[in-house]
C-alpha cells in the first residue's frame, strides 16, 4: 500500500512540475527574466515589466520588449533614443507618462535566431543562457544611462 501511494505521489509531483513549466520558449525566457530581476536590475531605480520576446529565424534576431518604470523622478520630458552596446545589442527607448515615468523599451539581439536559443536550464542564470543574460544586462545598463543623460540635460 505504501509503495502504491508513493508512486501516485511521484506521478502527481512530476505532472505538477510539467504543468508549471511553459512549453513556449519565449514565455520561459520572460518568466526567467522576471525571476532574475529582483536580484539584478530591479534593485536600482527602475521597475521592469517584461512583456514580449519576438524572434524571427528568417530575418534573424530576437527583440525583447519591456517597460522600465522610473521610481525616482517626476521628470516629464519625452525621450526617443537609440544606441548600440559594445556587443552589438540595439537598445531603443521611448517614454510615456502614465502615473509616473514609463519607458517603452526594445532590446534587439541579432546573435540569437529563435527563443529556444535563449533557454538553458543548466545555466547559472536560471533558465536562460549566460550570453543572453549578459547581453540583456548590457542593454539595460545602456538604457539607464540614456535616461539619466536626458534627465540631467532637461533639468538644466
Would you summarize the structure shown here?
By secondary structure, this protein is an alpha+beta fold.
Walk me through this protein's architecture.
- The protein has 156 residues and is an alpha+beta fold.
- It has one domain.
- Helices cover 37% and strands 26% of the residues.
- It contains three helices and five strands, in the order ααβββββα.
- The chain has helices spanning 2-20, 25-37, 130-154; strands at 46-55, 62-70, 80-84, 90-97, 101-109.
- A five-stranded antiparallel β-sheet has the order 1-2-5-4-3.
- The protein starts with a helix and ends with a helix.
Task: Describe this protein with a few key phrases.
3 helices, single chain, 5 strands, 156 residues, alpha+beta, globular
Strand and helix layout:
Blueprint: H1 2-20, H2 25-37, E1 46-55, E2 62-70, E3 80-84, E4 90-97, E5 101-109, H3 130-154
Antiparallel strand pairs: 1-2, 2-5, 3-4, 4-5
